[in-house]
Design goal:
By secondary structure, the protein is an alpha/beta fold. The protein contains 10 helices and 11 strands. Helix content is 35%, strand content 16%. A 6-stranded parallel beta sheet has the order 3-2-1-9-8-7. A 3-stranded parallel beta sheet has the order 4-5-6, covered by helices on one side. The chain has a two-stranded antiparallel sheet with strand order 10-11. The chain is globular and about 50 Å long.
Length: 297
């Protein structure tokens, strides 16, 4: 993931900004729901080429093994190719019932067509991913970084027409979405109305994407490590912010770890889960990482 990469991460101020004033108000709506706090933490990919040092020698089915270590996956493979029902069923069959998939909407819809006349393609996509059944966590829409508020009518139509039975999260990237004004207000209010999540992206070169504006009971966070020692300190700060959000009413956490050079995503994930478990008194399974010589922390 090269988006947001910088030459010298050491010069970046990674401090999390204050919450948007509306976030606390949104979370208040869910504080007395009585539901259990749901936490899903994972990586963006499961193949050996990217997650070097993660798989023990002899592992043949990467997804099946990955699902013994993590409880979820942010699925970028569905971004590059339209999924089909048979493939989705195979993926689902390799994971335990508690595992959740978070598939990205195919780029033929979001990038090439830029949401123009995509009703039929969206239906094909949704029909396919519905075969995840209970293993479907949420779908997420990532828009092109040149998709600006000038194209709002297409986005509004897409969000309103997206099947309400499928949880949806949205990531906008164009800088104009994060400036105060009518565009950002229109988007966040619509997401609130529809019960859809507003994705937060923590990456070195685009600190504006840390808008800290939640729109429902979900915090969907895409964390991009900078291959720098600061990555661990950043995760610790996230733990504290999530603890605050949980106290305010947060019901669900979806946290996915990337790196511009994917070498330590499982290590970062394990660190985050350990500290989150301790801070929130949780029991999320911590990945047992290997170097093919033995386990290591």
């Amino acid at each position: 993931m090269i988006f947001g990469k910088v030459d010298d991460p050491g010069k970046v101020d990674f401090t999390l900004p204050p919450d948007h004033p509306q976030t606390k108000e949104i979370l208040k709506r869910y504080k007395s729901s009585g539901k259990s706090f749901e936490v899903y933490v994972g990586c963006a990919k499961w193949n050996k080429k990217d997650l070097k040092g993660f798989y023990p020698k002899g592992v043949k089915d990467e997804l099946a093994y990955y699902a013994t270590q993590f409880n979820s996956i942010e699925m970028n493979s569905t971004f590059y190719n339209m999924p089909n029902a048979a493939q989705v069923e195979v993926w689902a069959s390799k994971t335990p019932e508690s595992f959740r998939f978070f598939p990205k909407i195919t780029n033929s819809i979001s990038h090439f067509s830029r949401l123009k006349e995509v009703g039929q393609a969206t239906q094909v996509y949704c029909d396919a991913i519905s075969h995840f059944g209970e293993r479907l966590g949420a779908v997420f829409l990532q828009l092109h970084d040149k998709f600006s508020p000038k194209e709002w009518p297409k986005l509004e139509q897409f969000l309103r027409e997206f099947p309400a039975v499928i949880p949806l999260a949205v990531e906008v990237r164009h800088e104009d979405w994060f400036k105060s004004g009518e565009a950002s207000e229109a988007l966040t209010h619509l997401l609130e109305e529809l019960g859809q999540a507003n994705i937060l992206v923590d990456t070195a070169g685009r600190r504006d994407m840390l808008h800290m504006r939640l729109t429902n009971e979900v915090a969907f966070i895409r964390y991009v490590g900078a291959n720098h020692p600061k990555d661990y300190e950043r995760l610790d700060e996230w733990v504290e912010r999530i603890k605050t959000w949980k106290e305010q009413g947060l019901q669900k956490l979806y946290f996915f770890v990337h790196q511009n050079v994917e070498v330590e995503s499982p290590l970062l994930s394990a660190h985050f889960i350990k500290h989150l478990n301790k801070a929130l008194t949780l029991d999320v399974s911590v990945p047992q990482l290997v170097d093919n010589k033995g386990l290591f922390d």
